[in-house]
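User: Could you check the structure of this?
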Amino acid sequence: MGGDGDESSGDQGYDSGGSSGEDTGGYGDAGGYQDSGYGYGDSGTGEGSGGGDAGSCLIVFGDMALAGYGGIGAAPLVQIDPDDNPDNHVVLHIGAGCQAVWLDVNAGTAACDYSDTTDVDGTAQPSVDNLSLGPQQSDWRTVKLGRVSAGRHTFTATLNGGTQGTHDFDVSDT
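Assistant: Sure, the predicted structure tokens are below.
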């Protein structure tokens, strides 16, 4: 799978294991994300491989435990929609709307424009379009799912470049 980003700068985002013969940074030499010498959270200093490389964009899920959600792990999260909860339910319920929230992070070295797509149980939900993030920047995303039938469901968000995150959730009818 190739990375998404500025097409003019060549092979970016994902590296199948240090194709240049050296570890260029990122998350190791055994497959995973490598990004021309910059790992996620790096301040962007240092030299990347490729000389005049224009950089790359890599959109990933942020760790919501670090972003004020108190230890719930990585995104996405399905929760009650506060704008559609007339009976003040405290758990997901058929009498209240649901919404999914997550944190997009550009772990790359270049700004990019992109979209996130979503689904519940394989049925497409609203996408989040016309997004833009600079390098090492983040922003919250929210998709209102409306009322969901009782039972077990799976929400999936697919970020620019194909990274997927899922959240299994139960909706009560009692």
